Amino acid sequence: MRKVKIFKGIESELNDLEAEINDWASQNGASIVSITGNIAPQTGSGSGGLPMGSFPASDVLVIVLYEGSK
Fold this sequence. Notes:
Order of helices and strands: EHEE
Structural class: alpha+beta
Number of helices: 1
Strand order of the largest sheet: 1-3-2
Radius of gyration: 16 Å
C-alpha cells in the first residue's frame, strides 16, 4: 500500500531537513517511490526588521511517496 509522508522546513536549514528525511527513511525501512519538493518564495517586507535586499528564509515542503506495510 502506498503512503505519503510530508516534511516541512525552511530554506536556511536544508541540511537538517535532509537529515530528518534520511533518518525517517532508515528507521522505518521505507521503500521510497518518489520525492517531490517545493520552495515557497518569500517577499521582503517594506518596513520590516530586515535590511534592504534581505529576505526571510523560504518555507520548504517535501512530499515522500513510499510503499508501506498494510
